[in-house]
Amino acid sequence: MFLDLIIQKSQIVEVFLKANRLDLHVIVSFIWDFLFHLKINQLMMCQIFKLTWFCYYLLAGSIIGSSININNQDKVINNEKKYSLTIQIEDVIVTKGILYLAIYTNKNDFMKRPYLKEKYFPRNFPKGLVFNLPAGEYAVTIYQDLNNNSRLDKFFSIPIEPYGISNNVRTFPKFEDSKIKLFKDKIIKIKIKN
Q1: Would the pTM of this model clear 0.85, i.e. be above it?
Q2: In the prediction, which pLDDT does 157 show?
Q3: How far apart are CA 14 and CA 16, in angstroms?
């Protein structure tokens, strides 16, 4: 009789779990049926206590499992909104030093805090780069650090090392002038100014 009752109750719990509706009411009624239909001794009390905790963990697992499913659905939605930005780099004349690339997302961070940054060594200077980015506006800067001091050297604010900016801006770069809108896959060309 005890085994039959466990099987019957575990089937009820399983049905509620599949329906994702396991709650405190189910656990209490599960325990109450055991207490009501059985003559309780200490061994039985231990078993019921273990069963109660088992049900509690099932409930916690179903809640956490629901959260995980919701988060995974959000990730799929976010992945659908990502687009490919292909950057073709032109006119790299000197193949020495390190090529630094930075991508910015707004005017407050422009030339200060990049959203993404990469560096490439002379043996693998890229001709084209592909980034998968969320939809939005971006500005791209590239410079070639010829003397390996990890910064773009300037003389009276004029760069003296090769550099390039999205939209091939010729004036002092601003986010508004160099931004590109990424709402579909896009290919841009950046010419390095030597």
Answers
A1: no
A2: 86
A3: 5
